[in-house]
Request: fold
Amino acid sequence: MEKEIRALKARKNAVIMAHNYQPLEIQRLADVVGDSLELAVKAKETTADLIVVCGVRFMAETAKILNPDRKVIIPAEDAGCPLADFLTPDMIREARREHPDAAVVIYANSTAQSKALADIICTSANAVNVVRSLPNDTILFGPDSNLAAYVQREVPEKTIIPLPPGGHCYVHAGFTIADVEAARRRGGEIICHPECPPEIQVQADRIASTGGMIRGVAAGGDEPWWIFTEREMAARLRVLYPGRVFYEKPEAICADMKKISLEDLRRALESEEHEIVLPPGVMDRARRAIERMIAAGA
Ligand code: 13P
Ligand code: SF4
Reply:
């Protein structure tokens, strides 16, 4: 299967981009493995004819928005992100009417239609710097309210309004104080994703995007690390740093990130399905907001 996929990839001049939460067998075949920001930046740079995104829909949409003239496909059509679905375009329009002086910062984990209404996009890797780069004192921030709380702590001079107030990722919302206590009993450092609830964030030794976790662990010592995010991240870190100890939470599984199998990937390369198609106007507006993020270099 792996040989077939590599041959198809070469024949189609395709690039395979995989998120850090993808199963290792998919990561092994990918040309690029990274966090949302790294995938967006690489999508902008590629010269491939076919872009295959192994991740969830918003990641494939971002790749398409940045490459409107290339074919972008996702091997599992129904791989969504429940967090993205918390925010609707109507919520953004209404919040803008209520807060006309606020900037609208939309997290990458959102639909293309929501991105099209943003002033600027951010990911978990650059949310703090994106918000700092804006002149506005008030920021409408969605859809992740835990990431909004993190940004508020880091940028206390601005008012961050979560949009909607309770938007969250069920995988990260599942981390509890009991998990922190269990980690403290066994020892080691806790690194958590900013989508974890604020009460977990304040107990963690570090807070980072998935790409930031790779860099943070490299810079840290040889102690065991508790990886408070989707569990595949610990597997990825074990591949990158053999011999080091990483603990995951076995129940922290993003079901949508597990929808792509090797057979799906092979079939997608062969049939060039499922293609991401978005209205050109939506893509143009969303692209401006994504490019503003990339230009901010945050
Ligand atoms: P990263 O940008 O940190 O990879 O996060 C994406 C995501 O979906 C987190 O759940
Ligand atoms: Fe969305 Fe959460 Fe899955 Fe990330 S882990 S893709 S935020 S549902």
